[in-house]
Amino acid sequence: MRPVTKLLPLALFLAGPLTLHAQENLPPANNLPDIPEEGGAEETPSEPQLELRSLRYGGSGCPVGSINTSTGAELANGRLSIHWDEFMVELGPDTPLAGARKNCVISFDLAVPEGYQYALSEYKYRGFAALDSGVSSDVSISSYFEGGKSFPYSFRWTGPQESDFVINDFIGIDKKIWSPCGLKRAFNTNIALRLISNKKQNPDAKGLLLLDFTEPLAFRFELRRCSLS
Fold this sequence. Notes:
Jelly Rolls; disordered N terminus; 0% helix; six-stranded antiparallel sheet; mainly beta; single chain; seven-stranded antiparallel sheet; 229 residues; 13 strands
């Protein structure tokens, strides 16, 4: 694993009851039929690919209509991009306390080729943090299959600072969580943003933490054959 920032213990923050919203189906990225070549050489079988059947999401950080991606299309080389409008938390003397922490759960329904299982192997997020002295920020990420265990990660920055950031993590072989062979399970990712203020140090401190809506969240999944044992 090669994260771009130091890993710290996780704390997930769910803001109230969670309702997942079904993403409206969009047309496949490429729905044109293949045209066979006459007299050509025999085609080489293509590599097995995952397919995104549907996507649901919910949480204080991703209201209805804030996320979209193409469904019904194969994931080329296991890569999937999620686009959203805004995911931001703020902290300050005039900002409601609830605005300093938000979360978003994204649930993927992936079609898996027969005889294969998959796992998340890489993710990439871009964002921006503007933190006064006495303010710290926390980005928590936890991925898991429905009803299964998870491996959580947390990334933290402390003010004063104002800068863009990139979280690009390659998940090690001992940390990968594989889908159960022959069973259908939704794959979920919970992303939580939080700002924390030391009011004794700076009672008027302000903070802003957001994930960049101009760049997609990037996921990469890995396939392997199910064991025969």
